Amino acid sequence: MSATATTASAANVSAATAAAAARTAETGTQPVTFAKALNTALADSMAREDSVLVFGEDVGVLGGVFRITDGLTKRFGTQRCFDTPLAESGIVGMAIGMAMNGMRPVIEMQFDAFAYPAFEQIASHVAKMHNRTKGRMALPMVIRIPYAGGIGGVEHHCDSSESYYAHTPGLKVFTPATVGDAYLMLREAIDSPDPVIFMEPKKLYWTKEQVDLDALRLSHETAAVPPTEGRAAVARTGTDATLIAYGPSVSTAMAAAEAAALEGRSLEVIDVRTIVPLDDATICASVRKTGRAVVIAEAPGFASVSSEIVARIQERCFHSLAAPVLRVTGFDTPYPAPKLEKYYLPSVDRILDAVDALQWEEKA
């Protein structure tokens, strides 16, 4: 590169930086990572309510494998944010006892498949305590689970385990797809009187969006915005078909909708946000409008959340459908080696192929 070109490039970078700074000053927004939004949500909840505790494997001094709990021990002390032994069943069991006695534990499972040793505690006790006590005892606790693929992780580090929890009555299941929702949904999960499985898409941790965290904090604490629980979001409007996704698949669905627009097709994208409770109304309103739908998820398709969404659309929107509802999911195999994950995960091409298969031509 010539000296002139280098100077021009530097000038462009400086101009872009200045423009970004001006926008930040004007709107109050700034580039915020998904991880920072979660970290801020934890800190704000802990500052607002002394009963909120954070614990798990390496969440203290280290700040968590993905640094989501970074700085919390230094700010709130080892009584409020602390490390535990590598014993997931014990972590959940301790959280149950704390929640039964007035605390609001927020625990981290570190990786999706690491939570399996604790599943008996979750399914047998976390999910059932409120019903078992005829409503007399709530369990206000959050189980944070970094999940899904896209990071080149090995086996036991990239599972999409949401269906296990969604199938278990008594649990709420949240999975944010945007930086703003990461903050708001974690605050709501911590405030909830019911146990919440909080699924965090690992591949989104270092994505950035322009966000005003102070405004989000104020809107949550003053209830100035409707809660996200049970409310899907229309991430993109369209008229020809509906793409329904959650968590890590929302960004892929958005990219597919962008690509489809170049081909003249208008695709609506629904971000499910909370798998339990599920917002049937928003999903069905979109499908009734477009007449066609594709459900997208990283998890294997058999007996999955995507299966449930398809079934609900079929039951509620049958007479509005112009074609069978299709799915683009992970395959019914264990998660593959890192070099093969690009073939396993839903992609823009796979989504567009499914859209093309939605019986666009009138039959004779």
Break the fold down into its secondary structure elements and pairings:
Elements: H1 3-27, E1 30-33, H2 34-48, E2 52-56, H3 72-76, E3 81-83, H4 88-100, E4 104-108, H5 119-126, H6 129-132, E5 142-147, H7 162-166, E6 172-174, H8 179-191, E7 196-201, E8 208-211, H9 213-221, E9 233-236, E10 241-245, H10 249-262, E11 267-271, E12 274-276, H11 280-290, E13 293-300, H12 305-317, E14 326-330, H13 341-344, H14 348-356
Parallel strand pairs: 2-3, 2-4, 4-5, 5-7, 6-7, 10-11, 10-13, 13-14
Antiparallel strand pairs: 1-8, 6-12, 9-11
What integer is the average pLDDT? 93
CATH architecture group name of the largest domain? 3-Layer(aba) Sandwich
| CATH homologous superfamily annotation of the largest domain | Thiamin diphosphate (ThDP)-binding fold, Pyr/PP domains
- Helix/sheet category: alpha/beta
Low-confidence residue ranges: 1-25
Gyration radius from CA atoms, angstroms? 22 Å
For this structure, what is the CATH class of the largest domain?
Answer: Alpha Beta
- Sketch the topology as an H/E string, one letter per element: HEHEHEHEHHEHEHEEHEEHEEHEHEHH
Could you tell me the CATH topology label of the largest domain.
Rossmann fold
Number of strands: 14
Going across the major beta sheet, what is the strand order? 3-2-4-5-7-6-12
Percentage of β-strand residues: 15-25%
Percent helix range: 40-55%
Shape: globular
Helices, by number, come to 14
How far apart lie the N and C ends?
61 Å
Q: Structurally, how many domains make up the residues?
A: 2
Seen as an oligomer or otherwise, the chain set is single chain
Instruction: Please give the largest β-sheet.
Output: 7 strands, mixed
